Each structure stands twice: as C-alpha cells, then as structure tokens.
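hiii, so i know i said id send this last week but things got crazy w the move. better late than never?? heres the sequnce for the chain we talked about at the cafe, plus the structure i predicted for it. fair warning i was half asleep when i ran it
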Amino acid sequence: MPNGERALSVAHLLAPAPFGGLETVVSTLAPAQVQAGADVTVCLVLTPGQTEEHSVARALRDTGVSVESWEIPVRGYREERARVTDLVGRKSLGVLHTHGYRPDVVDAPVARRMGVATMSTVHGRIGGTWKGRVYEWVQARAFRAFSGVIVVSEELERELQEEGVPADRVHLLPNAWEPTLPPLSRPSARQRLGLPEDVPVVGWLGRMSPEKAPEVLVRAAARVRDPSALYSFIGDGPDRKVCEGLVRDEGLGGKVYFHGEIPDASRFLSAFDVFVLSSWTEGTPMALLEAISAGVPVVTTAVGGIPAVVSEHEARLCEAGSFEEIARAIDDVLSKPGAARARALAAKERLETDFAVAPWAQRHLDLYRALVNGS
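okay and structure toks below
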C-alpha cells in the first residue's frame, strides 16, 4: 500500500454453523487480507445464550482480524440491521462482504443504502426441498442488487446468470487452502476417534444433509469387498438418523462410527485411509481441500467445481449417487495403496501450486477496490 493511502476497510458478515466450509473460507480469507494490507472485521450473527466461543472466533484469534460476535434472536432483524448501520459508521466501511442467505437478504441492503459496496460469495447451492429452492430464488433476486458476487465454480456462475444476475457482476474465484493447525498423527487421530489402528478406515466429513449425500457412502460400504474396512463419519445434521437406519438395514452394525461435530475436524483426517466426498452438489468444497492437504487418497463425485480441483490423475471421480461406483473406487484405493498414494501426492502438489492463499486473497481485494472505485 502506498505511503499515506488509507487501508481498505472490509467486513465479512455471516450467520455461521458450528463448523463447515463457509466458516473455513472466512477463517482463511480474513487473515490473508490483513496480511495484504486491509483493515478486516469479521461479524458473527449468533443465537442468544451461546456460551462457547465460536470456532471462527477461535481461529481468528491473534491474526490481526477484528472479530465481533452479535447475539441476535432468530427473527431479530431490526436489531441486526441496527448493528450493520453502527458497523458501517464506526468502521468507515468500504465493503461489506456477506456469506450466506440471511446476511445476503437481511443485512446487505442496509449497507447499500449507506453507500457501501456489497459483495457476496456463493459457496454452494442446497436446493432439494421446496423450501431450499424458495430460499435460493429469493437469494438470487437479492444478488441482482449487489455490487459483485463471487462464485466458486463454473456451474454456479452459469446458474446465477441464468437466474438473472448480470454477468459483469459475477466473478469466478475458486476457494484456496492453507493449513492453520497441524494435523494429528495417525495413531493420535484414531485414538481420539475411538478407531482401531490396524484396520483400513474410510472417512467422511461434513454436514449430514441431503445435498451432501452421506447415505450414499453407507450404501457403498455394504458393497465394499474388504470385510475389515470401517467407516467414520465426522459431522452432524438431519440425515444422520437416515444413515443410522441404513446401517441397521444394510447389516453394517459395528462397522460404522458416527462421531458428531468435532472442533477443528480437519486435524482428524490423518486417521483415514480413504476420504469420500459423496455430494450431489458442491462449489469448491473445503473438506476436499483439507483432505488433499492431509495427504489422504480421495474418492469423490464429479460435481460442481470438483473436476477443476482434481482429475483422474489425482483422485477417483465417480458419478453422483452411484454407490456401486463409489464402492469400486474404495476397493481400488484399498487394494492398490501405492497408486492411491501417488494420486494423493499429485493432488497435494497441485493444491499447493494452484490453490495458494495469498493470490486468492489479493484477487478479492482487487475486486473490492474496483467496486469502491466504480471501475
């Protein structure tokens, strides 16, 4: 930044889940923007009475990012908008960057009325239920008023343009990744997950919801040839009960572990011999980047932005919903560990080359400055 030039003031605003890809993106992006010279605040819209420090706040501690935790009732929209008004004036905000449906729809209009540039990132689409489709329709209409919208895959770029968001406001910028915490050793990760050391473990990480398709892995598990393999699910959500029922139906009792939500879950990926991403839809999934960074062989569906992250040279790519194909891919990884390790190494080398954080953060700042300057 030239001498005398004021640092760009940026705020990221989100209503975070306990952990997840969106939360990891913000936790990675905000400190990198501080390193690049921006004045960055992260605002978390939380439910009242939350006693534990949120994982995003913990991750940003001592990074130079200012963190504000706002306890807002579920429908406390007036109070939330008042907080945004105060934030804009107090921080002399140049850009408000929202993440997720609620901040996009409720909060961004407040900043725009005060002359602040607004940016949103579309991390992925849920769809599926009629309620999810309505939310996405409302959100897409809101995007038409934004100064800019970042998407993390070409598929999302096409979808937003088809939904009426002006093409010149949509910017393709896949996610980046760098480890913020050292991974646990394999023995330590397995011990803390309650997994035996001497058997192959197939792992899954994410929100257990329909678009993430955890039940597809359960069905695949029943068709994997290796009878000693165990299956480890880190995460929670509405589809957990569905998966637990399938475990009983498929005769997998004692072979499938449901660990629930675990703070800093990426540290535990070292416990796995195979990481499976079974989603129906994705942007650039952070769980995939985390698994690659941990050096774990990957089996994934070829949806959304995933083929831009890994090819057949770096992972086993499968059709979404095909538990038979996923089972065969797991068998291939477990029966040919040398080839699987070679793919994992190639994926990690590509991650470190093509998905570095510093240029990713700088690209965000370049977009912000173009919005602020009206260019």
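btw The mean pLDDT is 94. thought thatd interest u
miss u guys!!
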